[in-house]
Amino acid sequence: MAPRAASREEAVARLVELFRTHGYDGVSLSRVTAATGLGKGSLFNYFPGGKEEMANAALDHIDGWFETRIFAPLRAVPTASAGLIAMLDGVEAYFHSGRRACLMAVFALESHPNPFSARIGSYFRAWLEAIASAVERDPQASGRAQDFAENMLSAIQGGLLLAIALNEPARFTNTIERLRRDCCAHLAPCPAMASPS
Amino acid sequence: MAPRAASREEAVARLVELFRTHGYDGVSLSRVTAATGLGKGSLFNYFPGGKEEMANAALDHIDGWFETRIFAPLRAVPTASAGLIAMLDGVEAYFHSGRRACLMAVFALESHPNPFSARIGSYFRAWLEAIASAVERDPQASGRAQDFAENMLSAIQGGLLLAIALNEPARFTNTIERLRRDCCAHLAPCPAMASPS
DNA sequence: CGTTGTTTGTACCGATCGGTACAATCCCGG
DNA sequence: CCGGGATTGTACCGATCGGTACAAACAACG
Predict the structure, then answer these.
(1) Which of A39, B26, B93, B190 is the most buried (most CB within 10 A)?
(2) What is the interface size between A and B, counted as CB pairs within 8 Å?
(3) What confidence tens digit (pLDDT) does each residue in A13-30 have?
């Protein structure tokens, strides 16, 4: 059932998916060995801190991905609307159009507070600040940047939650599409929409 | 640490809070006995089906509360804006202004799919339909009822998630306040706002 | 080929998991 | 005061939990 993970990085990638769908408590070491094809020997060689280190490695992986692919671009983008729409595209792709849950959200809700609460908070705070920094660059909405960011991130996470809970990925893509329209409606220079369909 | 629960109903109330903050996997029978003051004997007398029946009793409790206090009123209300604002007030109070998580959301994310997926889906679907049925009664927005409902519920759940993840309840109350303004902005007869501040 | 350090499978550990059995206790009608 | 059904604490069950110990297998390099 489990093609053996060839490297620590590949093991981390599988851990991410494992924690994403089963939560921290729902992932047992036997499940990890099954999903990675690695025995306990290798596992504790890669992750001497045990399960908690595995989870932290998974969170590290996500932190890194979002920082370089989502947050940093947002902070550097010249115009808010284009930057935010690019972010929405990236997020839609990352979450497989609503078929994949957000690991940070899973860990945040599963048990709270928990050992990961601090870094989960940092993740969402970084996301909020990245959005706000882009909006502040917008001539029309710079005063409402905090509010705009809070609204947008709430919608993303809520839409994703609904998509998972209902097993209807379209709940997420609909939400993303609404947010795209919001960008065009409330921010200054809206790039031509591809196909309003 | 635990004043003994005097009735099955009181035990269920404590189970709700227990599952809400620790998730299904995070609640062990020893935790249940500690939180309810009930030994295993009483526990399996009240809930012969064991932990799964305890969880279902907790979900029943929430289903009932929302059905009578939120969903049914929404379906019966004459004007959409007044009904939705009453719903927002009720929801804000129920979730303790963002200090309390949504048990349905916790169970939905913790592990998916899981034995409770079907009823979790029913819960969110009922909520969506209740909102939509109210909006359909609105002369201005009746055509966008589905979209309006999806957007509103996403925002509620996302705002709650952010409040929990950041341990900043204001993230939730801000979101609720934004939704109140949305109601006044996009629905026909807006009752006078208390204080636009 | 030999040696040295890393990687790996396996046996094992105490603790805790959800659940059962059952005897003691309680409560209440007669 | 007594008898019988409901309630309850406790001892116990096999399974699984996360984690450790360690020896065999392996790799790299001289």
Answers:
(1) B26
(2) 136
(3) 999 999 999 999 999 999
